[in-house]
Amino acid sequence: MDFDPPAQVKPLLDKIEAFVAEHVIPLEPHVFEVGFEKAAPELDQLRAKVKAAGMWGPQLPKDVGGLGLDLVEHGLVSERLGRSPLGHYAFGAQAPDAGNLEILHKYGSAEQKATWLAPLAAGELRSCFSMTEPENPGSNPTIMSCTARKDGSDYVIDGHKWFTTAADGAAFAIVMAVTDPDAPAHMRASMIIVPTNTPGFDRVRNIPIMGDPSSGYGSHSEIWYRGVRVPQSNRLGPEGAGFLIAQERLGPGRIHHCMRWIGICERVFDTMCRHLTRRKIAEDKTLATRQIAQAWVAEARAEIDASRLLVLHAAWTIEKKGFAAARDQVSCIKFYVANVMLQLVDRAIQLHGALGITSDTILAYYYVHERGARIYDGPDEVHKMVVAKRILARYASEPRGEQVPSGGAP
Fold it and tell me: Which of 135-139, 337-341, 360-364 has the lowest mean pLDDT?
């Protein structure tokens, strides 16, 4: 691997970094105060500036108006965008739309692409992804209660979903529902496009996250599907391919998430170091003179840099060898980078003292809204278990090697 950013993307990275600092971060206080829904006009203006600067849709294929970056290149972009909670949204690279765009581009029919992909890629509407259910483990999407039964040329969908991110204000949902309960576990579900104005689509509430329900793009909704009728032509890909498509969606998505988290780490690291060098603890001393602060700074620097290399190596492996070759790496970066980020946020808050738990810095926002990183897209414990089982299975299948003599040291 070449550890320098690719020459063709380096000018873009510099341009994005400057734009985020000059235009995106200054808008944060307003958006956090009034919420995403009320801040929509200012956010639309921000997105228009991104388009005018030729930086829209870094992850999107060129045939739908994007920059067509590969996974490694977009990972580097994602880190720069991650320095602000508004970054990915401003550039049209936000979840869940980014993942929905990928599967629409690969599996969508010509009609689906014209109706949904084109305006979604242009940022003219938003979407959501409806998979997680409150009654079932989100870590195992083969266990699902939401059903889509055939009735003539339609599907009739019934089920209960939650943590459907950005459903508030979304034009359509991609719903994962069981279409054949008698099929093998990994072939029971399909993905179906459901316009959110369809009768029976009941968005019950925006779920409060540590007391904050947010609004618009920043929300996570609970939804009931009550006899929702859509044509079978709204299905994405073959019937029963929902699990397969979900896995394809999650692989690149975890690269994007992890690089965004590294962007958060860099922002928090800067915030923390500036505070340490300015906060007086005596007439001639700052917090930067304390050994515990110095140790945390050094550890954070090493962990952030290690995280970046792990994620970029995973992205490189996916690009060169395919997702199957990177499965262990993708699981490892998911739990490792999430923990690095959250430990850093917590330590930065501690070093800021009472200031750290206020909204006068970005730290409290991250503490509330990023704690879910260790839960969504598979909790840490599941990723660790899966990786360990694969590793140990490889050792168990090896020919018997050097043996420990009876009674000898292990």
Answer: 135-139
